[in-house]
Amino acid sequence: MLIIHNCTSLSDAFESYDTLALTSLRAIMTVIGLMAAPKIQLKSVRSMQRNTPGLLDRQCTGYTSGVLAVTLLSGYHYTPWGVIPKQAKIKRNLQVGVQLEFATIPPYLTALYSIKEGYNSEIRKLIRSVAMQEMIHMAQVANILIAIGGVPRIDSKETVPSYPTVGLPGNVLPNLTVTLEKLTLQHVYKVFMGIEVPHNESVTDNTTGEQIAENTIGQFYDSIAQCVTSLGNGIFNKSTANKQIQWPWPTKIGRVFIVTDVSSAVKGIQEIKEQGEGASPYDPTQGDTSSLAHFYKFEEIVCQKHLVKTIHGSYAYDGADIPFDESGVWPMKDSPSSKDIPPENNCYTEAKAFHSAFRALLRNIQDVFSGHLDGDTGMMSSITIMESMAVHARKLMWTKINPHDESSCGPVWDYEWTTPPAGAKNQ
């Protein structure tokens, strides 16, 4: 079992997983003068997640994938294909925000489902809280889009990623590979902390507020907030308030703001940022939220210690233990997909049932977003569907792929179920 008491260098914990790669990285960094110490500190590993700067436009034109774009004071966005009103651009970017939030949910829930009943209870609680807040964030972005006259799209092939995927929607973290895997400390470190990585150093880096990552989720939302602010209150239609989503759970999990103007839109965006990467690189408790940001929750899991304030006023993972028991995790095969599950496969029946429930969830949320179902009724029925998904997922986790393989089945998050050709091998 891997236990980290001093979590100042998380990379040390994973040297056994990839010794050659880390050794090579150390050598390269030493040669180019980026590292004075013989160990790669966590800050250095995070720095290697930096992405190509400049692709996320901060000036209300959204992501352009490298296409030259000029925004004029006239309120129009000029591209080689013509003129796009700024309001149409922000609608498109908010739809990307819906897709961005959704893309984080299957990885988190898959790891959550892989925990056996009665094991790793504190870790289960932390991951579940993050997954719930990601759903809140998706609802919040949807409310902003609805408030300016848009209709969020969730039940579409474009919204549901195909895992594993490189990068997140909106050109966010374009070098990060996001996979569906069982719970391991390495997976939390590489993928979950990679998703939630802050733009600036975290509080455990002896921070000076230095920028360590580009094109983060936080930066994406900064650009959205700047754009909304520059367009002003005129883009909002207050009559859409009754079409927006209310959140039925207690406020300690999170809040979904009804959006009627710039102030309420920015307030919602700020909560998304604070719950994701944190409000401050100096103080993880700063902000309006009542719990640690996602990044720090995941770092607590990896360090197996709660983050606490020291007597010197700094922060360290020296609090109560968060034990991780590897035997309390089902041996799910990575990245389960319908294309690998022929009808004769042991996984087929439950995987198909999970997938059917997943598609029902997408249709239900779409009905809420489109105004065909009122928010309260829609969200409560979504909860019921998600409970059935969890039941099917647990059954998958304890089902072996075949008698000769220790690996178990896993939930299928494909948008469309693709039946493999006759004679195809099992997973």
Uncertain parts: 1-6, 15-84, 205-212
Structural class based on helices, strands and sheet pairing: mainly alpha
Total number of β-strand segments?
7
What is the N-to-C succession of helices and strands? HHEEEHHEEHHHHEEHH
Query: Which range does the strand content fall in?
Result: 5-15%
* Major β-sheet strand ordering: 1-2-3
**Radius of gyration using CA atoms only:** 22 Å
CA distance, first residue to last residue: 28 Å
The overall pLDDT, averaged over residues, is 78
What global shape is seen? Answer: globular
Number of helices: 10
> Biggest β-sheet: count, sense, barrel?
3 strands, antiparallel
Q: Helix share of residues?
A: 25-40%
Short description:
By secondary structure, the protein is mainly alpha-helical. Helices cover 40% and strands 6% of the residues.
How would you describe the overall organization of this protein?
The protein is mostly helical and 427 residues long. Helices cover 40% and strands 6% of the residues. It contains 10 helices and 7 strands. The protein has helices at 19-31, 42-47, 86-113, 121-147, 185-195, 217-231, 262-276, 294-303, 348-369, 375-397; strands at 70-71, 76-79, 82-85, 165-168, 172-178, 308-309, 315-316. The strands form 3 sheets. A 3-stranded antiparallel sheet has the order 1-2-3. The longest helix is centred in the N-terminal third of the chain and has 28 residues, at 86-113. The chain starts with 18 loop residues before the first helix and ends in a 30-residue tail after the last helix. 43% of the residues are buried. Residues 1-6, 15-84 and 205-212 have low confidence and may be disordered.
